[in-house]
């Protein structure tokens, strides 16, 4: 599971300050140095760590902490709250339309878990949010991607709209919207093409679909295992498409967690969902405070 090492190291850093009646400046500086090292070793972006530590320092050295009965606990709380802030503070729900069909474009590099996430999200919407979703296979380059989506759709009882590989992605998207209207769907999720790298052709195709569909959400899947590269990928997609949310996948892997802790702070794009395994149910709505609890162990 992500964050295992980080949680352990932070726990050790706090051990020396909790339970103490009074904190000296040295106690505080030792703890801050340890927190800083833990974050850097977890591969959190350097600039993010620097700002994070200086915010904690400012708050932890304040009068309220130094004169409190249990200053250690207060400092731990300050760190907790700053981690929540790094992760986005507020929950970021799906931008459902009040009426009419909500449209969601799923984008991301190949292998990040985009197709799996599309099905997981459709399943969650159907089972937990009472929505009536339609999945649309817009990755028309790879026949395997269409088959994969169809298989997933069948397993969760969600219809998959596809015109095969002969029809262009934009045309598939257009016809899917007509189909959704005619058949009373209230949510349409477009599984768009994935590539190994970002290229102009991919971005053009995605921009064309975006211009036509005018999606309520553009969700980018990023793989936790790719560490800080998450930030580069998210920044590139965001620059070109204005992504409205992130889906962090493979949090069940043994990633160090640095990308996750950096990406929101750098791109300002909220995390909306997290993938926690290969099974359809292994998806959670993202809550910054719960994730912070997990990181702090
Ligand atoms: P796509 O190319 O981006 O559409 O990626 P896929 O949806 O095909 O997923 C690629 C691989 O990652 C598949 O083997 C998935 O089962 C796996 N995968 C997707 N999400 C997760 C996750 O949250 N955890 C784990 N462990 N594996 C995942």
UniProtKB/TrEMBL annotation:
Its main location: cytoplasm. It catalyses: GTP + H2O = GDP + phosphate + H(+). Keywords: Cytoplasm, GTP-binding, Hydrolase, Nucleotide-binding, Ribonucleoprotein, RNA-binding, Signal recognition particle. One of its GO terms (cellular component) is signal recognition particle. Residues 270-283 form the SRP54-type proteins GTP-binding domain. It is found in: Cytoplasm. One of its GO terms (molecular function) is 7S RNA binding. GO terms for biological process: SRP-dependent cotranslational protein targeting to membrane. GTP binds at residues 108-115, 191-195, 249-252. It comes from the Bacteria. Its EC number is 3.6.5.4. Composed of three domains: the N-terminal N domain, which is responsible for interactions with the ribosome, the central G domain, which binds GTP, and the C-terminal M domain, which binds the RNA and the signal sequence of the RNC. Part of the signal recognition particle protein translocation system, which is composed of SRP and FtsY. Belongs to the GTP-binding SRP family. SRP54 subfamily. Involved in targeting and insertion of nascent membrane proteins into the cytoplasmic membrane. Binds to the hydrophobic signal sequence of the ribosome-nascent chain (RNC) as it emerges from the ribosomes. The SRP-RNC complex is then targeted to the cytoplasmic membrane where it interacts with the SRP receptor FtsY. This is Signal recognition particle protein. It comes from Amedibacterium intestinale.
